[in-house]
Write a structure and sequence with these properties.
158 residues; mainly beta; Elongation Factor Tu (Ef-tu), domain 3; seven-stranded antiparallel sheet; 1 helix; 11 strands; 5% helix
Length: 158
């Protein structure tokens, strides 16, 4: 196989980049009024995993690697304001697989199967809004265990 050939130019990307992270929200299952008030949302990363080492004793100069075949989504992490009764909801939602939907500022959505792994309140302090760290794990499997891709839907006009 021939050596890689560099690209001759970089074209301008199509579309547009988000100008602000406001207003990004999350829906757990069918509960559009979940008692979490998002302050920060870190959408899940798409991860190809560590490379597979394919080096052998026949390599001369370089260790060689290959990409894995499977992909995964890393956890969705959010920091939210909450009310004390959110504990009741969290205890009911923990480890229950459902559809998770992220609403992005441009109206786009990302929906995937996942579950609430952790509702972790931060220290309560005088003069500060009570916050909780919330972790959601993408499973990418439906209730039968069948693999399901996440679904991205572009916002109107994007």
């Amino acid at each position: 196989m021939a050596a890689p050939v560099p690209a001759s130019t970089r074209s301008a990307p199509t579309g547009f980049h988000m100008r602000d992270g406001y207003q990004t929200t999350i829906v757990l299952g069918a509960d559009a009024a979940v008692k979490l008030w998002e302050k920060e949302v870190k959408p899940p990363a798409v991860d190809g995993g560590d490379p597979t080492d394919i080096s052998t004793m026949h390599n001369v100069t370089w260790h060689t690697q290959a990409p894995r075949k499977l992909k995964k989504m890393d956890p969705l992490e959010t920091v939210c304001a909450y009310e004390p009764s959110t504990y009741v909801d969290a205890m009911a939602w923990i480890n229950i697989q459902e559809t998770i939907t992220i609403f992005f500022p441009d109206g786009s959505t990302l929906a995937f199967f996942g579950y609430l792994q952790k509702f972790d309140p931060q220290s309560l302090k005088e003069g500060e809004m009570p916050l909780a760290n919330v972790t959601i794990i993408p499973t990418n499997t439906d209730s039968t265990g069948a693999e399901q891709n996440p679904v991205f839907t572009a916002g109107i006009g994007t």
